[in-house]
Amino acid sequence: MNDLAPLLTPEGRALLDEVRDTDPAHELAVATRLRRDHPAELVSAALGQARLRQRAVAKFGAEDAARMFFTPNGVEQSTRRSVAAYRAERLRAAGVRSVADLCCGIGGDAIALARAGIRVLAVDRDPQTAAAARANAEALGLANLIEVREADVTEVDTSGYDAVFVDPARRSSKRGRIFDPEAYSPPLSWAVGTALGASRAAALKIAPGIPHEAVPAEAEAEWISDGGDVKEAVLWFGTAPGTIRATLLPGPHTLVSRGLPDPEVRPVGRYLYEPDGAVVRSHLVAEVAETLDGGLIDPTIAYVTTDTLTPTPYATAYEITDRLPFNLKKLKALLREREVGVLTVKKRGSAVEPEELRRKALPKPHGTASVTVFLTRVAGAPTMLLGHPVR
Predict the structure, then answer these.
(1) Dist. CA 319–CA 342, nearest whole Å
(2) Which among 36, 114, 278, 292 is least buried, having the fewest CB atoms inside 10 angstroms?
(3) What pLDDT, on the 0 to 100 scale, is given for residue 191?
(4) 316 CB burial (10 A radius; 0-12, 13-18, 19+)
(5) Number of C-beta neighbours around residue 213 at 10 A
């Protein structure tokens, strides 16, 4: 059932409440029982929606997810609530009071904008997706701030709004993930042109892997991570053209480029720092290295080393206990000797897959000790660094 309308009826809503916490393993029995009193298609739709809501908890939290309506693509592609809220706050602080949210999906960003007190026109060309966005605005009590329109975003007049937010589709049912910005739907060039015409500000959500040379000169580029996972890059217009920044959530903690040269290469010291993914993507490892008074272990590897411990939100610190040339036999012997039961494998600059090494080096636990192994290069040589995170 692709139509959300039956789920919005009193019968549909009651059924959604009844199947809310259904264990997927018990779905068949639940469906068989409910079909005695309800249409089979409605039961299937309610159970499908329950599954989507359970998946959406990770992005929207249990309270919102339990009230919202989702499509499979909507759960997969929507913005995490914390990231959307951060972006909405930036727009509010810039004086934005109204936003045209183009390619709104199921309304995750529109919800964050409305909760920041911003009036939103949410536009999507897919009827089912637009219906979900409209239902979500109503379910969360935000319908007075969110107008949902089913339309082609390239044909929408945004001149009556302070700002434009564009989240172009970066996946295709046939091709999967799209890496070429001009293959986005709509293309990045169209989104940039629309952003440049915004009266106060604009934000374009793009893939974090976008090449820096593809960032327009008029834009500020920001890479955002949440809980250590890189979630997106944003091109901002009307803010600080040419600025590069990395923002880490929760916090927020924001690091801004100062155009520093690459850090010097140093011998591996007592501590190894693993910069956050947003720092690496934004090419701000040099800024982190300077704050730590550290250097790189290799000119091509984004690990920073020092002999002193300096707390920073932008990198995770590890105390290094051993440095070995890459040798599986020696690693296995060392793990056995140290009675290691938990092995974490990280890599940069190595072709070895972490799971493969973990399986071969520690086929069964030898004790309760834990070790982190870094597969990397030091001065060009394949190297294993052993250590543990500094708490």
Answers:
(1) 17
(2) 36
(3) 94
(4) middle
(5) 5
Query: Does position 139 have pLDDT exceeding 80, yes or no?
Result: yes
The region, left, alpha or beta by phi > 0 then psi within -120 to 50, assigned to residue 162 is alpha
Measuring CA to CA, which residue among 85, 52, 87 is closest to residue 67?
52
The span from the CA of 354 to the CA of 374, in Å, is 9
Distance CA 373, CA 322 (A): 9
Average pLDDT value for the chain: 94
Amino acid 1: pLDDT: 44
- Angstrom distance (rounded) from CA 55 to CA 361: 34
pLDDT of residue 304: 98
Are 24 and 52 in contact by the 8 Å Cβ rule? The answer is no
d(CA 363, CA 365): 7
pLDDT at 2 exceeding the cut of 60? no
In angstroms and rounded to an integer, the radius of gyration of the C-alpha atoms of the chain is 25
205 vs 235: CA distance, rounded Å: 7
Segment 70-121, tens digit of pLDDT: 998 899 889 999 999 999 999 999 999 999 999 999 999 999 999 999 999 9
Q: What is the mean pLDDT of residues 218-225?
A: 98
What mean pLDDT is predicted for residues 319-324?
A: 96
Rounded CA-CA distance 148/120 in Å is 8
| Cα separation, 138 vs 115, whole angstroms | 13
Six-digit token string for 278: 């947003």
Evaluate if pTM is beyond 0.85.
yes
- Strand 271-275 and strand 220-226: pairing? unpaired
